[in-house]
Amino acid sequence: MQFIQENPGCHLREIKRVLDMSMGTIQYHLNSLEKEGKIISEKQHLYKNYFSAGLFKQNEKNILNLLKIETSRDIIMFIIEKTNPTQSEIVEKLDLSAPSVSWSLSRLIESGMIGEKKDGKFKRYYMLEEPKNVVSLMKNYHPNMWTNWSTRLAEMFLTFSKEDTQ
User: Fold this and answer.
1) Helix (H), strand (E) at residue 106
2) Does residue 46 sit in the same domain as residue 118?
3) pLDDT per residue over 67-125, tens digit each?
4) Which domain covers residue 134, as residue numbers?
5) What domain count does the chain have?
6) Which residue spans within the chain are E strands per DSSP?
7) If we measure between CA atoms, which residue out of 114, 125, 117 comes closest to residue 63?
8) Euclidean distance between the first and the last CA atom of the chain, given in angstroms as a whole number
9) How many helices and strands (H and E) does the chain possess?
10) pTM of the prediction?
């Protein structure tokens, strides 16, 4: 229960790996906690994710699930950093393959996290979800990711201020 409270959106194999317990034991306790109404599970794509009951709204669960996926998280953070980027800008900046970015963007659009708009021959991507909600959930439930991202933002602002003084 404590692990799920500290790691909302975790899945069975993640719990097993971190707690180093047998799969059967983990499944037994997850089923018991769910029957008691202490946790809820939600299937998203290939994983069944677990949350403390009554703690999160549906959009917050979606955000937490997407933040666990590295490529999706990097794309979300880049869209927050650089307003309305194109797919090619995302590919270039994040050093990912175009098919990987395309697939991730499709999932993010399908989830309602981001939107796309046509701009000439390009599509630009923007946040549908309030960026402060995303940042808040990252800060509270993924502190290591938050630290890395805030460091990157600080470096970006320092670079801008150096360019302005030259």
Assistant:
1) helix 98-111
2) no
3) 888 888 889 989 988 889 999 999 998 889 999 999 999 999 998 999 999 988 899 99
4) 57-150
5) 2
6) 10-11, 39-44, 47-52, 114-119, 122-127
7) 114
8) 54
9) 9, 5
10) 0.75
